[in-house]
Amino acid sequence: MPTPRVLVTTAAEATIDLLRDEHGPLMFHQSGGCCDGSSPMCFAKGEFRVGGNDTWLGRIHGCDFFMSASQFEYWKHTQLTVDVVKGRGASFSLEIPLGVRFLIRSRLFTEDEEKDMEPVFAGDEVPA
After folding, report:
1. What is the superkingdom listed in this entry's lineage (predicted)?
2. Per-residue confidence band for 127, with pLDDT thresholds at 50, 70 and 90
3. Where are the domains of the chain?
4. CA-to-CA separations, 70 to 47, 55, 95, 122, in angstroms, rounded
5. Topology annotation, domain 6-116
6. Model confidence over 25-38: pLDDT tens digits?
7. For residue 53, what is the DSSP state?
8. 37 vs 42, 57, 92, 93, CA distance in Å?
């Protein structure tokens, strides 16, 4: 089984479930820019337009996870885990009214893991 590039904690899954109940299907995007750009942002699916300048890393708890292609170049050797903590981020992410914010925890892939990685796709070429 290929090594996943992005994972999600149980606590983040519970928050995703709450948001999905209210907003329907969801997606995540991490830009790497300023103003909390290094935090993953959660949107209603299709609310944030992705394209060829974005990279699809996989799905977490049924949600597509994208990252800007330039940010992915810095993070391509790390496994990302989406977590949630109390506090308010400075973003437009859907979890903000709940008094929590998503964040990324990361670790470097091992050499063995890098030999069998899940593929990535351009944002406009996401598999069904």
Report:
1. Bacteria
2. confident
3. 6-116
4. 21, 9, 25, 12
5. Hypothetical Protein Aq_1857; Chain: A; (2.60.300)
6. 999 999 876 555 56
7. T
8. 12, 17, 11, 11
